[in-house]
Amino acid sequence: MTEAEPEQDAGSYRSLWRLRSFVRPYSRQMLFMLACAALAVAASTLIPLVLEAVIDGPIRHGDRAALVPMFLAALGLGLLEAGLIVARRQVQSVAVLKIEREIRDGLYTRLQELPVEFHDRWQTGQLLSRTTTDLGTIRRFLGFGAIFFIVDGLQYIAVMALLIVTYPPLGVISVLTTLPVIFLAKRFGASYSRISRQLQDQQGDLATLTEEAATGMRVVKSFGRGPLMQERFGSSARVLRGSALDMVRLRARFWGWLTLIPNITMAAAVLVGGIAVAHGSLSVGALVAFTTLLVLVQFPIIDLGWILSMAKEAATAADRVCEIFDAPLTVRDRPGAVALPSAKGRLAFEHVGFTFPGTRAAVLRDVNLVIEPGETVAIVGLTGSGKSTLVSLTTRLYDVTAGRITLDGRDIRDLEIESLRRHVAMVFEEPVLFSMSVRENLVLGRSEACDDEIEEALEMAQAGFVRDLPWDLDTRIGEQGLSLSGGQRQRLALARAVVARPSVLVLDDPLSALDVSTEALVEESLARVLPTMTGLLVVHRPSTVALADRVALLQEGTLVAAGTHHELMNRPDYAAVLSVERDTTTTAS
Amino acid sequence: MSTVESWHGIAAEEVEEIPLAWTGLLRRRTRHLLGSLGAPHRRALIGVATAVLLSNLAATAIPYLVGIGIDIGIPAVRRGDYVPIAAIASAIVACALLQALLYRVFVAGSGRVGQEILLELRERVFAHFQQLSLAFHEHYTTGRMIARLTSDLESINEMFALGLDTLVNAVLSIVGVGVVLLVLDLPLGLVCLSGFVPLWFLTRWYQRESSAAYRNNRTAMARVIVQFTESLRGIRAVHAFRRQARNDEIFGQLSEGYRLSMSRSFKLLGVYWPGIVLIGNLTTAAVLLYGGVRVIDGAMQVGVLASFVLYLRRFFEPLAEVSQFYDSFQAAAAGFEKLAGVLDERPGVPMPAHGAPPPAGGWRGRVDFNNVRFGYRDGIDVLSGFDLHIPAGQTVALLGATGAGKSTVARLLARFYDPLDGEVAIDAVPLTDLAETELHRAVAMVTQESFVFSGTIAENIAFGSPGASQSEIEAAAKAVGLDSFAESLEGGYDSDVGKQGSRLSAGQRQLIALARAFLADPAVLILDEASSSLDAPMERQVQSALATVLSGRTALIIAHRLSTVEIADRVLVLAAGRIVEDGPPGELLAQRSGHYASLYEAWRESLL
User: Fold this and answer.
1) How many CB pairs under 8 A join A and B?
2) Phi-psi sector, B443: left (phi>0), alpha (psi -120 to 50), beta
3) Single pTM value for the model
4) Which residue range forms the structural domain that includes residue B409?
């Protein structure tokens, strides 16, 4: 699926580099870690030199006493190396994890800001894998790959310099024979980028399937379609395995080459160096030292394999993370947006049109409607006529694509979103409750609400069942808590909107799951509450229409009539939408 | 609660610190899982081990060849004979090629085995989740299921990707070098090996501490995932009620919890790893001192001492690498442990693999509840001593206030749960005797949460009926009145419904769910508030479709709107888990003071 996308950008380090703002506050710690790593490598390199000194000094002279300082030197270097590793790891365990956390929190904040339209398109599983797996990849690169890339690079350069100094011809040969590593890194790097991006996307797809199987579990079970989900998951998992195997094979080839190169250099050293020794231009001791040094450079070269794969994986992971940071905040505060301290609640739709991004057909066209403060208007229309879309424009879940909506005469896009949403509260057709206490769920829109207000709202919404929950208002509900029936959820969602004390209350068919007698009670109390605010209702049933002062009839995305229920009853299209039951009676009997 | 027996399934999920007696069982369970996953790959693993063994041999030969080159090759060149040195250089190249090739075989082979095991584990866990009952899922929650199948499996993948070759390589070189050390000089060799004593204690300590730490990591990560998925799934409510700031705060706390937990495991490794390095360095220093003395005393050759120190590096360096592998192993083990816990959970509603056959002549649809007792929580029965008999072909409407037990009856009939006592049977076959496919040929349910899968409209309608033809799909859509909408779309029935139906209205989703049930064509159809979001004309259309679809079929309908009831042959009114009224609607209506009569009255009034 990545094939179609521009390839040259995939896996370039641009995205990774962009994340530096998260790293910058920890640059001192990062430098400290780098210094510790470099010094530890130096210390461990020095230990064999002590051996040389022991052999050339005390042992040759049979001097027991001189052994002690050498022993202490080795001991000191050994302690130093271990100490440096401890220091680096301690800093790493704070700094790198803090960086990871900050990126993760930043992503979550951003995802919450992104408009509903973004979430309609993006699968939760994809977003999740970016927030978990990808960030882990980036963290590992920062804490390890980046540091050892530099340390290994320094070690390579130092050793090569030493080699050239020791015997220039052989040094040059060593440099030349190890240079193909750069070419290999380039060649394999491109494939690494492609496959690692593919792998990460497929991991996201698999997470998406998992999420869907988990949320749709009831439907899957009621049709006994577990095998189908299993098959979908299995085939997706096999695709993922395919890419993982591509990665394994690539890694095997690359790592194979990397282990080969230093050994070839060794062969060249033996051949050229041996001949040089024979001709007297090099001493045996120097050749031995030379080969020992070559062994030292073997590790940085082999390390390059996993460092490069780590870097490439981190680069593509950063691409995926930056895609979220880059997604446009289409619904945001305009510059100069004002807060509205209080609202009278005059809501006006002026030539409002709406088209979903990426589609051509308009869902709403030229909608004009004014709702005066205190007035309640019901929107009536057939399934798919655009009712829910229309009301969701009022809190800017989506922005209008034509015309404007005003609150107290101001375009709602000129208001701070925070302020707009304080004044306009919404109840959705499908109530969303979070896994929190009942209280927390209720005060979502106004955290300062007091118990009396909660009490009042519960009574209004006929949600007295809360009192029978094991821990009353403190009972945890939602997915991780007690499960409630559809009707109970709807009543809590209604109570939540009332607790928010909005100027405008938007109800999107909020009583569909209530039984008739509860519905009647809720409607009775709504009738008391609604005159104190502006009301906009989406309605399916005649009884709810009675709550409204006026009714607007929506047909194929535009308002075709508005007036009182009785005025509209004469219109056949209006009557057809509402007066079901009489018809049913005749068909059934 | 604190017995070893009660340590079962996911009870461990929320336990932070695990008493020692339990860790043994956990590890046994994990070991068992690992064994069953690895067994089919035994031959491949042997092949891979052989490759890495030979590759190591080839690698070890190279320094030896370098020595020969110096001792034999150089004198030959001095005599003007270039053949030996060229031969030795070629031999080094040959060894290098062999080593690289075998290493490649090893990396590819072990990687393949790792991926096969991972795939097997993924599919096994997913299948197991599918089998577990809804009661389990309601308790376990989707977020944690996602965490298990994503981040826990990922930790195992990382182990395979990062560490396996380090481990094998290290073990080989440690064993090899250990033997060489003892052969070279026994007393000095023993000094070297004595380093293993502190190493053993250090490793024990690390193992104990880190397995607790990694277990915490998995739990902390699962919490992050739960909060993440929940808030993104409810994003509309998050926006509408300005929940962002509070959510940021909660997420911040959870992600800080994960950071602290990770930090602890990092710090443990930050002691363990340098600890190994330190032991290695101390041993080297000791060898230097003791070996130096022995050389000076003439008990040992200088060359032997030199080889000792060089070999020591090849001894402790891989050990330090193993410590890092061990770290990823502990992370994976914590993941394994969680997965083993899930796999150990027994399905609450077990389906026999080969169930009872359908009755001769196919399902007719007689439903019997015999003396059924059921409750969701201990001690609180929703139904008890419940009897209900529905003759084949009858349409029954189930009425009653919220909490009366209507949905419970429906769920028991769909076998989302099993009764605590008594039995539920269709055509005298207890539901518990039926295999999954047969059960759903007999009964299907449509709920008010009409879930729509990502995919096309046609795919969603055909969800319950594999192999349905396009015309059958269209007929089902037509029956519920979805046809005009579907045909108005650019792609018709093949139009994508967006992420879990986000492009559809609630009413359209319900129509899809209904069409899905009609197409599945079960002997018994259950509709639980299946038309609550439909507008009036749609509902009317669904009513008339139901009248056709339900003729001759057994149906159980739960609806608040009594329009649905009018097509029923029989009405049951439930109150507090018992049937308080039972009879044809007309008859019940005649009992003026009855529940149904008053409900009906209220409903008529609500119409205008």
Assistant:
1) 524
2) beta
3) 0.87
4) 397-414+433-606
